[in-house]
């Protein structure tokens, strides 16, 4: 007997790659013996409603075909349910798939990975971040990086990581430190001057910027990267290191591992998984084992002493 699974497709992801990717992904799944239905939405709200309906009706898996924006929508549908998530990453950034070492821009291979997992292959239970009723899988950005995101999202004429590089340069012209009030876990609130605070369940945002490079997606904790008050010159030196994750050793950078964080700052919009959450203040909580991801193997861990 075959199990019905659901392809959740963004036809506009990666300048049309979403629509083109659906067919080879579906073919790989059907070849493996699965019955596949496809759902599209007229807009994000309609797409999410359809995905939630599929989960409520008992689909065997929700397979998201698109970029990080669609992965974010899919997480809203499956988080906290037994329905596993498959990832066919064909967008621009694909940070969620990168963090889980899943195929990127190869929908047939991604379909085979999902099919193998559904037949007994690796399935990884990962943590998710939660802010109110919104879930996120990768990074919550606030500060300089969220302002870069604002500007990058307005740059319709250029795509990929390059637009974020351009947005960084543009935002530097108006750069000044931000006064935050932060609370880590149940500790006291305190004020700091910082350039940005990134809350990482995953490692990266912006198409490979490894802002929370050491984050582990199933340790029950966020990695909170704080880039402290610094000059434009220092920021220009530090930010290119983000692509390799080597910025974490810089003196202006600190990392905190916590299960929850409250952020307050005037005039700052937060983004999670590249999608706007709204203005600060907010509280983010790490929810352990909130979703099962098909084909994502757990990383090797050091046993230590």
UniProtKB/TrEMBL annotation:
Pfam families: DAGK_cat, YegS_C. The keyword Kinase applies. The keyword 4Fe-4S does not apply. Residues 1-135 form the DAGKc domain. Keywords: ATP-binding, Kinase, Lipid biosynthesis, Lipid metabolism, Magnesium, Metal-binding, Nucleotide-binding, Phospholipid biosynthesis, Phospholipid metabolism, Transferase. It is an enzyme of class 2 (transferase). InterPro entries: ATP-NAD_kinase_N, Diacylglycerol/lipid_kinase, Diacylglycerol_kinase_cat_dom, Lipid_Phosphate_FormReg, NAD/diacylglycerol_kinase_sf, YegS/DAGK_C. Its EC number is 2.7.1.107. Its cofactor is Mg(2+). GO terms for molecular function: ATP-dependent diacylglycerol kinase activity. Belongs to the diacylglycerol/lipid kinase family. This is Diacylglycerol kinase.
């Amino acid at each position: 007997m075959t199990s019905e699974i659901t392809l959740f497709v963004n036809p506009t992801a990666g300048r049309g790659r979403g629509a083109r990717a659906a067919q080879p992904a579906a073919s790989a799944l059907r070849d493996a013996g699965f019955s596949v239905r496809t759902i599209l939405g007229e807009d994000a709200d309609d797409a999410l409603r359809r995905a939630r309906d599929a989960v409520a009706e008992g689909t065997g898996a929700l397979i998201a075909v698109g970029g990080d924006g669609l992965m974010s929508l899919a997480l809203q549908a499956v988080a906290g349910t037994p329905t596993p998530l498959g990832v066919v990453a064909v967008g621009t950034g694909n940070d969620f798939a990168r963090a889980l070492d899943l195929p990127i821009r190869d929908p047939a291979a991604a379909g085979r990975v999902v099919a193998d997992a559904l037949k007994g292959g690796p399935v990884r239970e990962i943590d998710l971040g939660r802010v109110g009723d919104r879930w996120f899988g990768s990074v919550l950005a606030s500060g300089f990086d969220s302002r870069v995101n604002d500007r990058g999202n307005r740059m319709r004429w250029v795509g990929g990581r390059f637009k974020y590089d351009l947005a960084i340069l543009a935002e530097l012209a108006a750069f000044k430190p931000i006064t935050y009030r932060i609370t880590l876990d149940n500790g006291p609130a305190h004020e700091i001057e910082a350039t940005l605070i990134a809350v990482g369940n995953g490692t990266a945002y912006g198409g490979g910027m490894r802002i929370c490079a050491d984050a582990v997606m199933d340790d029950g904790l966020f990695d909170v990267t704080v880039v402290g008050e610094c000059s434009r010159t220092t920021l220009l030196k530090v930010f290119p290191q983000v692509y390799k994750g080597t910025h974490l050793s810089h003196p202006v950078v600190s990392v905190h591992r916590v299960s929850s964080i409250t952020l307050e700052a005037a005039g700052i919009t937060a983004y999670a998984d590249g999608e706007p959450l709204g203005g600060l203040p907010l509280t983010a909580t790490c929810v352990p084992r909130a979703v099962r991801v098909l084909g994502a193997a757990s990383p090797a861990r050091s046993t230590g002493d």
